[in-house]
Amino acid sequence: MSRQLKQLVTDTLKTRFDGVDQALVVDITRLNVQDTQKVRTTLAEQNIRVMVVPNSLARRAFTGGPLELLGQGLSGPCAVVCGGDSLIDVAREVAKLAGMFPLLELKQGLLPGDDELTAVSDLAKMKGRAELLGEIAMLMSSPGRSIAGCIAGPQSRVAGCVKTISERE
User: Fold this and answer.
1) What is the rounded CA–CA span in Å between residue 43 and residue 84?
2) Is residue 59 within 8 Å of 74, Cβ to Cβ?
3) pLDDT, tens digit, for every residue of 51-106?
4) CA dist 121 → 28, 75, 82, 89 (Å)
5) What CATH number is associated with residue 117?
6) Which end of the chain is less packed: N or C, by CB atoms within 10 Å?
7) Closest CA to 89 of 49, 42, 129
8) pLDDT digit string (tens) for 155-168?
C-alpha cells in the first residue's frame, strides 16, 4: 500500500472514530459470509457498528485520541465494535452472539477514562448504566422508607390497641 493510500485510510479512520471513546475488539474473520452478515445485521439493528481495520493503520488513527490504548493492544485479525447506549450493553450483545457463533472470538475492550484494557467477557458481566442507576435510587430511598416505617409503627400499634379495647367493650 502506498504512503498516500495509507494516509487516506488513516484519515478516514480518524474521521469515523472521531468522538468515540469506548470500543471493543473482536475477531470475526473465521466466520463464513452468512454468519458474518448475521452478526453485523444483528448489531446494526441496535446501532452498533463493526469495522474490520488493519492494525497498523488503526494504531496510527487512534494515536493521540481516547482509543490510543486500544490501538496499542491490537494483535491478529481485529474488528472494532462501537456504538450502542453503553459499552457494557455492546459487550453483552457481542457475548450473546459469541454463544451463537463459536468462531466469533472476543478479545478486549476499553471503557471511557480507563487506563487498561478489559476482556470483553468481563465487560459483559458488569452492571450497566441503567442497573447502577436503579441501585443508587434504591439505596437513596432506603433510609426514607426506614424512617417512614419508624414513624408509622407506633401509630399503628396505638390504633390496634384502641380497636382491641373498643371491641372488648
Assistant:
1) 9
2) yes
3) 998 888 888 888 888 888 888 888 888 899 998 888 898 999 999 999 999 999 99
4) 16, 18, 16, 12
5) 3.30.70.1730
6) C
7) 129
8) 667 667 777 777 87
Same structural domain for residues 30 and 73? yes
Say yes or no: 10 and 80 in one domain: yes
pTM, entire model: 0.73
Using CA atoms, how far apart are residues 114 and 108, in angstroms rounded to an integer?
13
Q: Which of 96, 89, 85, 83 is nearest to 127 (CA)?
A: 89
Residue 37 is predicted with a pLDDT of: 93
Q: Cα separations (Å) of 148 from 137, 141, 156? A: 17, 11, 12
Both 121 and 63 in a single domain? yes
Q: Who contacts 123 (Cβ-Cβ below 8 Å, separation ≥6)?
A: 24, 87, 88, 91, 109, 111
| Residue 160 and residue 134 in one domain | yes
